[in-house]
Write a structure and sequence with these properties.
Layout lengths: L16 E13 L2 E7 L7 E2 L2 E2 L9 E3 L8 H13 L6 E7 L6 H4 L4 E10 L11 E5 L16 H12 L4 H11 L11 H10 L4 H5 L21 H15 L16 H12 L2 E2 L1 H10 L3 E7 L9 E5 L3 H4 L11 E2 L4
Helix pairs in contact: 3-4, 5-7
């Protein structure tokens, strides 16, 4: 088939590489870890044959404006500002996500989408909720990660199913035991991404089937968390694992607290992010020994008991120590067996 100019057949358009951005924006509200999500409806009523009204929620995303965005981080901040009418404080680059087929537009013959992920910390009340955005509980996507009230009930099903999946493979069995703390391995709170990817590989996560266009083949997951659009649950797992690890050597937890706070409020934020209980007295000794806080000489309002002392982050620690974090969070533990 020739075009009308007589210059020969028209070459089909070759897919291009498109650079996008995603933000994992975390907050702790009422002692619960929260993540900002958006609706994908803004992509259009029809998204390559899929009704976006019924797609899962996504992480905030944006596209790089090559002419006006001087840096990727400024692009991400602009995108979040446009979607939430709020400005971010602490931000760091997380990872670059570029797996083939991660975006349904590519699977439908469109461009390949490379997404640069960012981790941001905020206080929920500082980011106004826009029309298509909402804050969601982090552990609704990873119910096996929250051990604060004891061993999650879903762990029994996960353990039985994964051990059955690994039967006959010593390598698989070892991975299951290490990732989910079976036997003598012990629970490692920082392996959020490894656990999610293992469940994906075992075909227990709904995204495994969606990625292959086989939603009808997906077995009942028995409550293995809500899915997210595209590969955004994987991005969120990466961000949650990063912040848990970051607590050990950077005082990022104070980004989620008001200027003054009680030590119990600080403890609750750490517990919310790690999904672990913290021994109260050990935690307080560690925080004070590390020089992370200083007293204000004031006390919180009455709460039915003796008013607790108010503290603030001791910024001088940033000059005194190269890694002013919570060390290994001594005193943090799983609740239950």
């Amino acid at each position: 088939m020739s075009d009308r100019s007589g210059e020969g057949p028209t070459e089909p358009r070759k897919p291009e590489l498109v650079v996008g951005l995603n933000a994992v924006i975390l907050a702790v509200t009422a002692h619960q870890p929260r993540v900002l999500t958006v609706s994908v409806q803004e992509l259009g009523e029809e998204f390559f044959g899929m009704d976006t009204l019924h797609l899962p929620r996504a992480l905030p995303f944006g596209s790089l404006d090559e002419k006006n965005d001087r840096t990727l981080e400024l692009c991400m901040r602009r995108s979040v500002l446009e979607k939430t009418r709020g400005e971010l404080g602490y931000v760091e680059q997380l990872y670059t996500f570029a797996d083939q087929g991660r975006d349904p537009r590519e699977r439908a013959g469109g461009n390949r989408v490379l997404s640069v992920g960012y981790l941001a910390l905020a206080r929920e009340q500082d980011l106004a909720q826009a029309e298509n955005s909402s804050w969601q509980h982090c552990y609704r996507y990873f119910p096996w990660e929250d051990w604060r009230a004891g061993r999650p009930r879903i762990m029994d099903d996960i353990e039985a199913t994964l051990l059955d999946w690994s039967h006959g493979s010593a390598e698989r069995r070892e991975r299951v035991e290490i990732c989910f703390g079976l036997g003598n391995a012990g629970w490692d709170a920082y392996q959020v991404l490894e656990r999610y990817e293992l469940l994906y590989e075992a075909r227990l996560i709904s995204e495994y089937w969606t990625d292959r266009g086989r939603d009808d083949d997906m077995p009942s997951d028995g409550g293995l968390g809500e899915s997210m659009a595209f590969d955004h649950r994987r991005i969120l797992a990466t961000g949650l694992g990063r912040i848990r690890g970051k607590l050990r050597y950077r005082p990022v937890v104070f980004e989620l607290l008001p200027p003054t706070f009680t030590l119990l409020e600080l403890q609750r934020v750490v517990e919310a992010l790690t999904g672990l209980q913290v021994h109260k007295q050990n935690f307080r000794r560690q925080v004070e020994r590390a020089g992370l806080v200083e007293g204000t000489g004031r006390r919180a309002g009455k709460t039915g008991g003796r008013p607790a002392e108010l503290f603030r982050f001791r910024r001088a620690v940033l000059r005194e120590r190269r890694a002013p974090g919570m060390a290994t969070l001594q005193g943090a533990r799983r609740s239950g067996n």
